[in-house]
From TrEMBL:
Active site per database record: C138, D207
Protein name: Ribose 1,5-bisphosphate isomerase
Lineage: Archaea, Methanobacteriati, Methanobacteriota, Stenosarchaea group, Halobacteria
Organism: Natronobacterium haloterrestre
Cell cycle among keywords: no
GO biological process: one example: L-methionine salvage from methylthioadenosine
Length: 331
């Protein structure tokens, strides 16, 4: 039997679930779609390895596993959407049936997620013309899918890649684009406005999309979008429907994750600033991971269901989610 870890003091979850939760929290697994995929995989592993001796015990284990995964990072709604989707497929009167349906549902989710990204890319590629220059922010697999599809269509695309402090995820984007042979100009975030004059599009992903069409994405997206609007550069958001945040239909706001000071200011650099007073607590650092771009600064949200003006995204949300909200383990 596999090693188990008590998650809430009463129900054990598999070590693989705890590992995945740690990887998400520490951003070894990151990016909204990748997080959703890993969470679904972890639930399947939990189902596969469960030692539950009754249907009730199995369901409690799966719900505890979902809660463990949910409590890692708060902003990307793809995580609770994935957990809810998988748990809704957990059906049957016996442990064997529950196991089988949960694993099948997780596999279906992961296949659909991959296909949605491909379809989204094909739709997004229609916005990109041969010879266009795209400015990117952070690293988004949904955004890159649009560029990949444009390249497959035979279009030549160039990219201006923002570094994206503090974690420099722009480097991941640059690496992927260079693998595809795309000419890349890497710039620090502060240079973005200067280089917008050379861009035909701003192309970003999303961690969550609110019902009013606001886009919650990596910190710096909103400033980029404001500058792009001022320069007349269209802003395109590539976001699978798994990024639509159902709770915002009933007025909830999206929690913005605040991350550790050390990502911005390593201890040795802090020591330099407060060299004369090592115990100085008058220096504080804020490190929000995301910001909110209002719909008026976004031209199009591209999903696998088509392209939407941000103000109309709520119609798609109602169709996909109805009015259902609540915690993913309370399915
Ligand atoms: O789902 P895909 O398009 O890959 O990524 C969507 C978004 O997830 C990332 O968040 P983080 O790096 O996990 O904080 C970035 O903000 C990126 O735009």
């Amino acid at each position: 039997m596999n090693e188990n870890h008590p998650s809430d003091g009463t129900v054990d979850v598999d070590a693989a679930v705890v590992d995945t939760a740690d990887d998400i929290a520490e951003m070894r697994i990151r990016g909204a779609a990748t997080i959703a995929d890993a969470a679904a995989e972890a639930l399947a592993i939990q189902a596969e390895r469960s030692d539950a001796d009754s249907p009730g015990a199995f369901q409690r284990q799966l719900r505890t596993a979902a809660k463990t995964l949910y409590e890692t990072r708060p902003t990307a709604v793809s995580l609770p959407n994935a957990l809810r989707y998988v748990l809704r497929g957990m059906e049957g009167e016996t442990v064997a049936d529950l196991r089988e349906t949960t694993i099948a549902r997780a596999e279906e989710f992961r296949t659909d997620l991959e296909q949605a990204q491909v379809t989204l890319g094909e739709i997004g590629a229609n916005r990109l013309r041969d010879g266009d220059v795209v400015m990117t922010h952070c690293h988004s697999t949904d955004a890159l899918s649009c560029i990949e599809a444009a390249l497959e269509d035979g279009k030549e695309i160039e990219a201006i890649v923002k570094e994206t402090r503090p974690r420099k995820q722009g480097h991941i984007t640059a690496r992927q684009l260079r693998e595809w042979g795309v000419p890349v100009t890497l710039v620090v975030d502060n240079a973005a406005r200067r280089y917008l004059d050379e861009a035909d599009h701003v192309l970003v992903g999303a961690d969550s999309i609110a019902a009013d069409g606001s886009v919650i994405n990596k910190i710096g997206t909103s400033g980029l979008a404001v500058n792009a609007r001022e320069r007349g550069v269209p802003v395109m958001v590539a976001a699978q429907t798994i990024k639509l945040h159902p709770d915002t239909m009933t007025g909830q706001t999206v929690e913005i994750e605040m991350r550790a000071e050390e990502e911005v200011l390593p201890p040795e650099e802090r020591a330099d600033i407060v060299a004369d007073a090592p115990n100085d607590d008058g220096l504080s650092v804020e490190n929000p991971a995301f910001d909110v771009t209002p719909p008026r600064h976004v031209d199009a949200i591209v999903t696998e269901r088509g392209q939407f003006p941000p103000e109309s995204i709520v119609t798609l949300m109602r169709e996909l989610f109805g009015e259902t909200t609540g915690e993913p383990w309370e399915v």
